[in-house]
Amino acid sequence: MTGPAKIDAHQHFWRISRGDYDWMSDEVAEIRHDILPADLAPHLGRHDITGTVVVQAAGTVAETEFLLGLAQTCDFIKGVVGWIDLEAEDAPQTMDRLMQSPVFKGVRPMLQDIEDTNWITRPKVLSNLAALSDRGLRLDALVVPRHLEVLAKVAADLPDLAIVIDHCAKPEIFGGADAGADWREGMRRLAALPNVMCKVSGLANEAGSDWSAADLTAVVAHILEQFGADRVMWGSDWPVLNLVGDYDQWRTVSEQLFSRLSERDRAAVYGGTAKHFYGLECG
Known about the structure:
This protein is an alpha/beta fold. It has a single domain, classed as Alpha-Beta Barrel (TIM Barrel). The protein contains ten helices and eight strands. The mean pLDDT is about 95.
């Protein structure tokens, strides 16, 4: 009898020669090379992970199409979260075209890189987010703490839009720092909105190269307390993770962070929540 699905709800692939990874400076030279499904497969096998959600790493529709192409020949890619221009008049038509692939599950605007914190409340963006919701697609929110208030407003104004917060909103925990009362309150307010979920991912990079479970315990405990396991999903953020650690280390530390959860709740965090949120076919 097959056990519950195990999903890595947040990982990336890229082919450097495509030329649209604008964020890949010399600071990330360690991962500035082609990284494709064959590179991830051994990690998934070691941890009995049956599927992944691959997330955009460039602000172009062409990169989304590249990821959808990878999914055609890679059985473990169960979902693709891509990018579209949410200020474009033809964004709904782009959604419809990308939805011809059943693994296209949602979009991720790169909010952390947009100077205007309130960009997501622009009328055309809100209109296109409503179109996203109408199509049953989801929003991955790549945000930092300055976005928490405005994201809560959008989530409240668009209650049918399914939103997942990437990387716990990147709390400022570098070098053992406390995430802060503002982050805790912002996440509490978001958790009060039933259409919002959260990914436990990317935290190692926020903590810095000497990170350990102790650096992340308070953040993860707050997320689990506020959202509950049925609205929390685990992701590796691989291969960005490799800048400060590796897949095995993150999985081992995650086991410590989730050690107090029941077997049922662990199954939700490690796959059930992602399967439900993204509508993944993992049979």
